[in-house]
Specification:
Layout: E1 21-24, E2 27-30, H1 34-43, H2 54-68, H3 71-81, H4 92-99, H5 103-115, E3 120-130, E4 133-143, H6 145-157, H7 161-165, H8 170-188, H9 190-197, H10 200-219
Antiparallel strand pairs: 1-2, 3-4
Helix pairs in contact: 2-6, 3-4, 3-5, 4-5, 8-9, 8-10
Amino acid sequence: MNNNHAYQYSCSPEHEPNTEEHQVLGKTEPLKDDMAQTRITKNLNKYIYKEFEGYEGEHLLKEIVSAILPLALARTWEKTMSFGGKQPWAGTERISQRAQVTQRKIQMDLKELEDLGLLEIKYDIATKAENGQILPYRAEYKDFSGLYDLAHEYNEWRKSRLFLIYQNTWNDCKRLREKHELYIKMQEDSNFSVEVRQDQALYDEICTAEELYRSLLRFHN
């Protein structure tokens, strides 16, 4: 797998919250627009893309991640995100406990996801309650935006004509491999390349198959 990868929402003036004053326990406070808060919350989709919103969207994302990542990396992503939040902060020890693998394995998986450009780990100072005190600690926030970009790209590709031409069958895989070998031969033998280009239908079929071949290398584990 050779992936080289590396939001925002806008709030229009008509969606500004209502600041009409009202009395609460003898104090004057602004009235919050609960509907506006709901709209903002919906926009904060932790998986970025609309097709991954809600239960069905999350199920779709998990299906795609399982298709484009090796099993171990897909598992590590899912267990990391199980702690909640757009950029989960749980450390490798807690993730390993939930995934039921060693901490070292989780560290290796996260490093591989970083190397693939599918994960960015950001560091910040957070606080936690301990023995009645609020204490600062160094937190690691895991940003999987690169993975969601790739998943979205894969989802769009599955709707394309190119994806429909070849199916995941033995015969189609054999045809794809044969066309790829012809493409390689065209690069190595200029006379053969000239000969193929004289047959426009064959040339188009080879080029289409090669484009799909490269997409499969990009998307499939």
